[in-house]
Amino acid sequence: MDDALETRNGLPDALRVLLDKHPRSAWQGGAGLGGLTQFWLERHLMFRQLSGQISEDTKALVTGDAEPLEYGQRLARFGGVLVQQLHEHRGVEDAHYFPMLARLEPRLAAGFDLLDRDHVALDGHLATFAEDANGLLKALQSGALSGGEDERFAETMARLERFLDRHLIDEEEIVVPVLMEHGEGSLG
Ligand SMILES: [Fe+2]
Ligand SMILES: [Fe+2]
C-alpha cells in the first residue's frame, strides 16, 4: 500500500480506529480539547495561513498584479518564518510528543512511523522551497525574471502547500483522537 505523503489521499483504514470513535466533527473548533491541544492545532492553522498567503502573493506576481520588490520583501519574511517555525514545530513533535503518544497508544505505532516519514519528506520539500525562493529573490533583485523563476516557484509552492496540508490533516487525525481517548494529562 502506498502511504507516501505525495500520493496518499488520507490515512489508511488501519490507522482510523480511534478516529472512528473520535471523529473530526467532535473536536473541530476546539470543543472539549485541552489548552495544549488547542495551541497545537492553532500552530497548524498558522502554517496553513502562512503557506496560503505565500501562494496567493505568488499567483499575483505571476499574473503581474503584485509589485515585484514588495512581493520579494514579503516572500523573504513569510518564507523565513514558515521554514523556521515548521522546523521548530517538527522538532518538538519528534523529540517530545510523538514518542509519548506512541507509548500511550501502541495500536497507532504505525501511524507515528508514517508521520516520521512525512517529516523527512517535508524536509526535502522545504529545501526545494528555500532553493527556488532564493532563486526567485535573486532574479527579482537583479530586475529580471527571464528564467521563469516566478512560475517555477509558483509550482513549488503549490506542491508544498498540498503536501503540508496532507501532513497536517493526517497528523491531526492521528494525534487528536489519542488525546481525546487518554486525556491531555496523560502526557505527563
Ligand atoms: Fe508534523
Ligand atoms: Fe504538527
Give me the strand/helix succession: HHHHHH
Strand content: under 5%
Helix content: over 70%
Structural class by helix and strand composition: mainly alpha
Q: How many strands appear in the DSSP assignment?
A: 0
Q: Quick one: biggest sheet?
A: none
**What is the mean pLDDT?**
95
Low-confidence stretches: none
Total helices: the number is: 6
Shape: elongated
Mind explaining what this structure looks like?
76% of the residues lie in helices and 0% in strands. The chain has helices spanning 17-21, 24-27, 35-62, 68-104, 109-142, 149-182. The chain has six helices and no strands. Helix 4 (68-104) packs antiparallel against helix 5. The two termini are 35 Å apart. The chain is mainly alpha-helical. The structure holds fe (ii) ion (2 copies). One fe (ii) ion binds at residues 90, 93, 115, 119, 167, 171.
Set out the fold topology:
Elements: H1 17-21, H2 24-27, H3 35-62, H4 68-104, H5 109-142, H6 149-182
Helix pairs in contact: 3-4, 3-6, 4-5, 5-6
The structure holds fe (ii) ion (FE2) (2 copies).
Task: Give the tags.
188 residues, mainly alpha, 6 helices, binds fe (ii) ion
